[in-house]
Each structure stands twice: as structure tokens, then as C-alpha cells.
């Protein structure tokens, strides 16, 4: 059998299609999600239903978002799933999750074995809806999970770590080898749980500014803050915030980034 064909469907690389086939892994993910009736459960990228079927067995209703038209049609004709599914044949990046949550009148529980090519931008999209999400379970590249949970002073700590930890508490759940998928991806994978904070530990007043500062610092991660942030604040101003200007982006904690952004936004408010 062609290794790209699974259940009669030819996997489309451009949609990041790697279908789960390992029952032990599937069971572990479903038990980590622990879906219950009367919850607003959303799956991104249901594909051929490897996770959709066991989750649907436990609930009465499930919303799925699938970009591939053939797969969405297949799910719509599925003998037992069709009655339970609300299908959005759409790019998950274009979904307004506030609207979905209003529709259900409940916080959302979101899960998916995400297409790896869009997993990071998709998570950034979802962070904008953190206030209406109760939790998320995602299969990602293991390397992305490592970056999500990374602490300062490590090579993997970066923009994704800071932004994700701003919004969420993050827990790795299980590592998944390439053989668990058909076709097998070239990289190791891992499942992670993200729980948006009910109260943000370090509240930022101007998210755009915060995001700019973090991006700017990590775009030039080898430079010291004194240099990478020179257009925003001086060495003395960094000192006054108790931040050593000779440190690099990877040495700065989320709390310190929030402190810099809030101080800058205060300065701008005072000027205006
Ligand atoms: N959930 C299935 C499984 O575990 O076997 C399929 C996972 S596969 C890695 C990713 C799925 O996401 C595919 O079904 C693919 O068509 C779908 N997909 C890709 N890009 C998407 C997007 N932008 N929005 C929604 N679904 C997308």
C-alpha cells in the first residue's frame, strides 16, 4: 500500500495530513481530554476521524473544523458521526471563536492533531480568544512543545514561550513517535495541554507593544537588550526597571518583559 494512502484517502501534504493510527496513543489523548456531555467541544482538523470517533462516543454533540473539502464531505456522510457533528469546512485561522463560544453560551474545549505547518500561527490566533477557552489539547511537533514550556536561560526559550506562557499554563502530556501516524512525519511529536489563565499572572496593558518588544528582542537574540531594544528604552531606563542591560532576550522572564512593556505604555500615556 502506498504509504500516503490511509482508509482510501490520499494524504495531502499541503494540509499537513498525518493521520493517527496508533490505538494506544489515540486512547491516551482522549483520556487526557476527558470529554464530557454538555461541554462545548471543538476539534481542529478531524481528518479521517481518528480522535473524532472516540470523542463523539462520549458526547452528544461535537463541532469540527476541517479545511479539506473531501474530508469534510466524508465526515458529513459518516454513518454514526454525521448526527453528532457540526462541520465547518473552513480554515481554522478564519474562525471567530468568540462567536462560537457565544453560540454555545459556554467556554470552549478545543483539541486537535494540528497540521504542523500552521500550528504556531494557529496557536497565536487562539490566544486572542483565551478568555472564552477553558482548555486546549494539541498534538504538535515535539520541538514546538519544548519551546512552549521552555524557561528563561535555555536555547529553546523564545517568543513562542513568552507569548504562550503569558496566556496559558502549559503541560506536556505524552510523546508520540513518527510510527504512530500514516504517513509517518519526519519528526517526533508530543501532546500538550494549554489552560488559559483565569487571572493573568503578569497583566500587560498594551498587548501590541508587549508583542513588539518580545519580537524585537528575540529577532536579535544574540544581542544584549541594551542593543536590541535601543529604539525603545535606554540603558539607564533598563537599570531603573531592575533589568541588567547586558542580558540577552533568552535571559529575560515573562514578568520582566511585561514590566518593560507596561513601563513603556505608561510613558506613552504620560506624553499624550
Ligand atoms: N485528526 C486527524 C488524525 O489525528 O488522524 C487528522 C490530523 S492531520 C495532522 C491535520 C488535519 O487538519 C487534516 O485533516 C487537515 O486536512 C486539517 N487541516 C489542515 N489545515 C487546516 C486548517 N487551516 N484548518 C482546519 N483544518 C486544517
Characteristic key phrases:
Helicase, Ruva Protein, domain 3; 272 residues; binds S-adenosylmethionine; alpha/beta; 11 strands; elongated; Rossmann fold; two-stranded antiparallel ribbon; single chain
Condensed summary:
By secondary structure, the protein is an alpha/beta fold.
Kindly report the spatial arrangement of strands forming the biggest sheet: 6-5-4-7-8-11-9
Proportion in β-strands: 15-25%
Helices and strands, in N-to-C order?
EEEHEHEHEHEHEHHEEEHHHH
On the 0 to 100 scale, the average pLDDT is 95
The small-molecule ligands in this entry are:
S-adenosylmethionine
Cα distance, first to last residue? 67 Å
For the sheet with most strands, the description reads: 7 strands, mixed
Unreliable stretches covering 5 or more consecutive residues: none
Tell me the overall shape.
elongated
Helix content class:
25-40%
Structural class: alpha/beta
Query: What's the gyration radius in Å?
Result: 21 Å
CATH topology of the largest domain: Rossmann fold
What is the CATH superfamily classification of the largest domain?
Vaccinia Virus protein VP39
Task: Walk me through the structure.
There is one protein chain. The model has no long low-confidence stretch (mean pLDDT 95). This protein has a 7-stranded mixed β-sheet. The protein has 2 domains: 5-196, Vaccinia Virus protein VP39 (Rossmann fold, 3-Layer(aba) Sandwich); 207-271, Helicase, Ruva Protein, domain 3, CATH 1.10.8. With 272 residues, it is an alpha/beta fold. It is built from 11 helices and 11 strands. Helix 5 (119-127) links the parallel strand 7 and strand 8. It has helices at 23-33, 52-56, 69-76, 97-104, 119-127, 142-149, 159-167, 207-219, 225-228, 235-240, 254-271; strands at residues 5-6, 9-10, 19-20, 40-44, 62-65, 85-88, 108-113, 133-141, 168-176, 181-182, 189-196. The longest helix has 18 residues, at 254-271. The N and C termini lie far apart (67 Å). The structure holds S-adenosylmethionine (SAM). S-adenosylmethionine binds at residues 15-20, 44-48, 50-51, 65-68, 71, 91-93, 113, 115, 118.
Amino acid at each position: 500500500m502506498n504509504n500516503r494512502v490511509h482508509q482510501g484517502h490520499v494524504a495531502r501534504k499541503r494540509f499537513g495530513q498525518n493521520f493517527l493510527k496508533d490505538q494506544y496513543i489515540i486512547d491516551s489523548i482522549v483520556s487526557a481530554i476527558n470529554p464530557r456531555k454538555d461541554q462545548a467541544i471543538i476539534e481542529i482538523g478531524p481528518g479521517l476521524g481518528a480522535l473524532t470517533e472516540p470523542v463523539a462516543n462520549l458526547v452528544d454533540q461535537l463541532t469540527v473544523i476541517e479545511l479539506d473539502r473531501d474530508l469534510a464531505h466524508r465526515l458529513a456522510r459518516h454513518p454514526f458521526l454525521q448526527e453528532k457533528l457540526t462541520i465547518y469546512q473552513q480554515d481554522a485561522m478564519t474562525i471567530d471563536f468568540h462567536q462560537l463560544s457565544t453560540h454555545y453560551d459556554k467556554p470552549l474545549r478545543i483539541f486537535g492533531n494540528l497540521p504542523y505547518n500552521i500550528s504556531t500561527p494557529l496557536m497565536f490566533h487562539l490566544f486572542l480568544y483565551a478568555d472564552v477557552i477553558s482548555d486546549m489539547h494539541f498534538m504538535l511537533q515535539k520541538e514546538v512543545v519544548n519551546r512552549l514550556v521552555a524557561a528563561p536561560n535555555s536555547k529553546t526559550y523564545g517568543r513562542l514561550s513568552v507569548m504562550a506562557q503569558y496566556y496559558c499554563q502549559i503541560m506536556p502530556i505524552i510523546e508520540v513517535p513518527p510510527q504512530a501516524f500514516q504517513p509517518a512525519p519526519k519528526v517526533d511529536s508530543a501532546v500538550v495541554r494549554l489552560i488559559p489563565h483565569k487571572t493573568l499572572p503578569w497583566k500587560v496593558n498594551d498587548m501590541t507593544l508587549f508583542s513588539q518588544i518580545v519580537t524585537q528582542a528575540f529577532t536579535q537574540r544574540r544581542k544584549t537588550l541594551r542593543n536590541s531594544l535601543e529604539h525603545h528604552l535606554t540603558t539607564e531606563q533598563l537599570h531603573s526597571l531592575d533589568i541588567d542591560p547586558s542580558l540577552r532576550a533568552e535571559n529575560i522572564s515573562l514578568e520582566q518583559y511585561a514590566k518593560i512593556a507596561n513601563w513603556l505604555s505608561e510613558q506613552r500615556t504620560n506624553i499624550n
